[in-house]
Inverse folding.
């Protein structure tokens, strides 16, 4: 008997004809120009719906702009699995005009799935009316056992920006329907695959407050978003000033060496 696996279908589309609530084409908040909308699996989450919360450049990165903690879940359906679950993703392009490039973060598959010597890839082009099956190597979470949300998207960045992206949510603990998010939303149950050992049950619900164990491992003088490592923001802290002084000192020494004696 073949092992059980998670099976997903991901649909690609051509650019959609979308109007906003006022009956007009949406506009890009940065340029004020008309903005296109591109969908995946009959839904779309364009970046114009997720504007930066501050003027800090660091708040525009993918780790924030695509985070469900910050903006809530995106509109396209979220794939779910337990870490290590064997998984196959069926890609189907139902459009007739545009080619897309499917890219899945942190995971790989073989270009020819039935050939063990085939090239290992993490992106693949898919043209109108084509379909592919991706047999994910090492299952959900890949070899390093990633837990959490993994994004996948069209790697043609205008399509990505216009909404063609979604999440693969990989759980590390059993979701039996009793868990809740900090806002009270019930986490839907997810049945383990029948031939795999069920994950351990969770202890308590999801919270934004750190546990005692997590807090004990914070770095000294931690910053929000950098709890376990000193990111050394060079424009603000002593480390940055020392580095700048060191670079200037090196430049002066190099300059003196170039001056003939």
């Amino acid at each position: 008997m073949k092992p059980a696996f998670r099976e997903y279908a991901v649909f690609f589309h051509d650019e959609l004809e979308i109007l906003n609530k006022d009956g007009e084409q949406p506009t890009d908040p940065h340029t004020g120009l008309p903005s296109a909308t591109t969908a995946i699996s009959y839904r779309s989450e364009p970046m114009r719906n997720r504007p930066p919360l501050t003027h800090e450049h660091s708040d525009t990165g993918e780790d924030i702009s695509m985070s469900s903690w910050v903006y809530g879940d995106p509109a396209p359906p979220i794939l779910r699995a337990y870490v290590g679950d064997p998984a196959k993703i069926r890609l189907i392009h139902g459009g007739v005009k545009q080619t897309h490039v499917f890219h899945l973060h942190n995971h790989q598959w073989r270009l020819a799935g039935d050939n063990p010597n085939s090239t290992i890839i993490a992106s693949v082009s898919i043209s109108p009316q084509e379909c592919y099956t991706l047999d994910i190597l090492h299952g959900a979470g890949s070899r390093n056992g990633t837990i959490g949300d993994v994004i996948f998207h069209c790697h043609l960045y205008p399509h990505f920006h216009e909404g063609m992206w979604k999440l693969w949510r990989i759980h590390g603990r059993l979701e039996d329907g009793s868990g809740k998010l900090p806002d009270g939303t019930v986490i839907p149950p997810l049945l383990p695959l029948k031939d795999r050992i069920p994950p351990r049950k969770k202890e308590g619900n999801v919270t934004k407050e750190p546990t005692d164990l997590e807090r004990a491992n914070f770095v000294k003088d931690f910053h929000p978003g950098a709890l376990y490592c000193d990111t050394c923001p060079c424009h603000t802290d002593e480390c940055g000033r020392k580095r700048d002084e060191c670079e200037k000192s090196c430049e002066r020494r190099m300059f003196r060496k170039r001056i003939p004696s």
